[in-house]
Amino acid sequence: MHFSLLSLFLFFALAAAVPAALAPRDHTPQVKESVAAPNGWTRLGRAPSDRSIRLRIALFQQDFAGLETQLYEISDPEHRRYGAHMSKEDVEKYVAPHPASLALVDEWLVAHGVHESSLGRSPAKDWEYYSWQHTDGDILVRATSYSLPQYLHDTIELIQPTTIFARGKGMAPILYPEDNEPLTPATPLANSHIDASCATRITLSCIMRLYNAVGYKPRATKKNAIGITGFLEQYANQRDLTSFYRQQLPAAVHSTFNTVSVYGGKNNQSLWVAGEEANLDTQFGFGVAYPTPGTFWSTPGSPGSFDPDAHTVVDTNEPYLDWLDYILDSKHIPQTISTSYGDDEQTVPFTYASRVCKRFAELGCRGVSLLFASGDAGVGDGDPDPVTQQCFTNDGKNTKRFIPQFPSSCPYVTSVGGTMSIPEVSANFSGGGFSNYFSRPAYQNKAVGQYLRKLPHGTYEGLFNRAGRGLPDVSAQARKFQIFWRGGPISIGGTSAATPVVAGIVALLNDARLAAGRPPLGFLNPLIYKRGAHAFNDVVAGNNPGCGTPGFNATKDWDPGKRILYANR
Ligand SMILES: *[C@@H]1O[C@H](CO)[C@@H](O)[C@H](O)[C@H]1NC(C)=O
Ligand SMILES: *[C@@H]1O[C@H](CO)[C@@H](O)[C@H](O)[C@H]1NC(C)=O
Ligand SMILES: *[C@@H]1O[C@H](CO)[C@@H](O)[C@H](O)[C@H]1NC(C)=O
Known about the structure:
Layout: E1 2-4, H1 5-17, H2 19-22, E2 29-34, E3 41-46, E4 52-54, E5 56-59, H3 64-75, H4 88-95, H5 99-111, E6 130-134, E7 139-142, E8 145-149, E9 156-160, E10 169-170, E11 174-175, H6 204-210, E12 226-230, H7 238-248, E13 258-261, H8 276-289, E14 294-298, E15 314-315, H9 321-328, E16 336-339, E17 341-344, H10 350-365, E18 369-373, E19 405-406, E20 414-420, E21 425-426, E22 433-439, H11 445-454, E23 468-471, E24 474-477, E25 481-485, E26 488-493, H12 495-515, H13 525-535, E27 536-537, E28 564-565
Parallel strand pairs: 4-15, 12-14, 12-16, 13-14, 16-18, 18-20, 20-24
Antiparallel strand pairs: 1-4, 2-8, 3-6, 5-9, 6-7, 10-17, 11-26, 17-19, 20-21, 22-23, 25-26, 27-28
């Protein structure tokens, strides 16, 4: 729905002045949520009163606990219901709000002059805004708290964008400009079927060999599909993809993918606006899974910088809920989806993170495997400037703390870290650690518990949440990927690169299952932790520095920087 800020202010003036006339309820606004602005943000001034902002009101779901039970049963390879994924309608029965809650919120909105016609519904049916500027120049219109009448607090879970300072960064900014010469001819490594060049330059053929996928011929291409999300005006360029295929996968040179616009997301095919992230994700994701059909979703949202005085701009920098609404409303969803975007967990309000995470669980119930990049700054946020870096808590106490990434920290998605070299070691930038928001899911108890017991007593005490969800879940090569961008070859990396690779492999595994008449893998983590030991190569060297520490070590068995996927089925 679209409110203008002006009408919001009016509405609170009204709410304060005439509550008794509206209903017997007490309409006095009470603080619903209050956050501290993350480091690096400076308040500029009152937001222009005629800026529009599209707000989303999330009502509490009737039975998320019930849905979670379903998710864990159908994702547990030892449960008799393994693979019994749910339909759209079945999922909606659990997450729909109580009809009485809907009526209450409608009544509240109508009482304040917001009518049905300006409301959009998701399929399941006094805040003060300021402009804020980040040290890197980005400006957002946000509030540090908002209020609602007390009687709505147990009905409305959250309203966003209000307190969210996240910007949904792409994670592929690591460029290796020194590598831009032509690829050298392949010479196999001694005692290996892998080319020596793969130790320093990653091509599709390196990935297929490293992860045992050479020669697999997809057969379920009428049923199976792979999807790549795109945000922040990242456009996936078809001409660059064709050049990439000409160089690395000639059989695919005539293949295309489907770009889907989510709520008006654009698709500019000019080479000059091709996105590095979008190109990396589509070239390696679709390349590994070829000829599995590929979908690229373009969801609107500016990369952060907009003119706070341009009154007509609608602030849509809310990275995930739009896409989730769109995708959950679809009958058929690609079985494997890769996302290489994320934010420092603490810049995302807990209520928002928790709601987005629950929606990912809905996708898991529908049989979708979700892969998210674990981040490119080790245990930190990668900012060397002690003033703006986020290695401090956001609660006003400024305590030093490691920084996990969201959505990777959500326990209902699979978090993908990065490795390098052959044999593989953990890449030193690979995001990994423990969520401060989400507690450790049962499927991780054994693996993560074991790791924590081995940590020397007192290690990084106070810097991480020992009870938190550990990440990543898997890793893959993440440096020096050879792709095409804006007409020429470049070398690029990050967990952004590892994520579509893992998604491509998972899509091939799903192909094998569908071709054999079985359901797709769906939510992967319970399977990975129960049966993974046989399918994965354990990465036992490397660490992930950040926040002025060496970070965590890769060790035997689970650790916050290991485990790579081998596709031997
Ligand atoms: C696509 O981007 C190019 C380069 O910035 C620009 O000139 C062109 O107008 C854009 N096309 C559309 C349809 O927006
Ligand atoms: C990570 O490794 C690269 C080269 O492998 C090195 O240049 C860089 O300084 C390392 N970063 C940290 C934080 O140790
Ligand atoms: C990582 O390994 C080094 C060298 O063995 C050791 O000194 C350090 O304590 C380990 N760090 C953690 C967090 O386990």
